[in-house]
Amino acid sequence: MSAKDRPAYFMIQDAIEQARIQPGGTFVEASSGNTGLGIALIAKQLGYRSKIFVSKSCSKEKIKVLIQAGAEIEICENSNGLHDFHSTQFRAQSFAATHPNAYFTNQYYNTQNICAHYKTTGPEIWEQTQGRITHFLSGVGTGGTISGVGRFLKEKKADIRIWGVEPEGSILQHYLQYGKAPKEISPFDAIEGIGRNFVPGSFDPQPIDHIFQVQQSMTKLMARRYLAETGIPSGFSSAALLACLHTYHNEMALGPAHTVLLFFPDHGSRYVSKLYADSLDFKTASSTL
Ligand SMILES: Cc1ncc(COP(=O)(O)O)c(C=O)c1O
Q1: Which residues sit opposite 54 in a β-bridge?
Q2: Do the domains at 5-104 and 114-276 have one common CATH topology?
Q3: Rounded-to-integer distance, Cα 211 and Cα 239, Å
Q4: What are the boundaries of each domain within the chain?
Q5: What digits encode the pLDDT tens for the residues 65-121?
């Protein structure tokens, strides 16, 4: 399971309520894997089919669980947004438009994405920290999590800091600062789930104070260090938050008076081959010595 099951559930529920899909129809989504899995599992439970478009950077583990969940999958060249014919988003939209009783949930532009986090994740964080939270740190992909949680928390406590994290080379930091995309947009080292080279409609800059950029190499390093120190394999984008703390420690000026929440949306089991395969080999190797 992942935090993205929430938007998946809200988008499906809304589509059914609004009669945008009939029983037995196909839910279609473009996803780095997690939203797709939420859609696939919920669709199956409710008697619908699912067709998920993932990019070729999607981990083997996620593809495997998607197939197990009954999704039909198509692997696309990239997730560069609707304007790119080879993107997950274009292929998903095109599939839904050309197949009867197929509905594109479209997490990048669906209001239910932000709404799910505004109505569930935000209040849960507020309750579980008993209102003591002072900083919220979250990876940014579609923007749904940070926009929904940020909106809720700022309504509760206006001076709370809402901080995003994306890979170096992604454009949302620039968009937040200047209100437009940078002139030069180039490919960047991917951290699954976060970072974009277009601005999703579900990214609401309003509650966000700052977006930090981290290196993929530092993220991988931090994932392994966290595993070594805690025994917990974190997800890829979760490790990006650790890389962020490590890189911007001084600038963040955090102290004992602060309650900082790091939002880990999934877990390391989905990235064994990408992040931990060597350390597992190492463990296996050392146990056989
Ligand atoms: C692992 C992971 N981290 C972070 C995110 C980003 O969340 P959001 O799309 O709400 O910005 C996603 C989104 O799919 C994700 O799958």
Answers
A1: 75
A2: yes
A3: 16
A4: 5-104, 114-276
A5: 999 999 999 999 999 999 999 999 999 999 999 999 999 999 999 999 999 999 999
Give the number of the atom of ligand 1 that is nearest the alpha carbon of residue 142: 9
Closest CA to 188 of 89, 267, 79: 79
CATH architecture of residue range(s) 114-276: 3-Layer(aba) Sandwich (3.40)
Strand partners, 212: 165
The span from the CA of 240 to the CA of 233, in Å, is 13
Contact present, 50 and 40 (Cβ < 8 Å): yes
CA dist 285 and 23 (Å) reads: 52
State the catalytic residues.
Answer: 4
Query: For residue 54, what are the contacts with CB-CB under 8 A and spacing of at least 6?
Result: 30, 31, 32, 33, 36, 62, 63, 66, 73, 74, 75, 76, 88
Check if CATH label 2.60.120.10 holds for domain 5-104: no
Cα of 83 vs centre of ligand 1, distance in Å, is 21
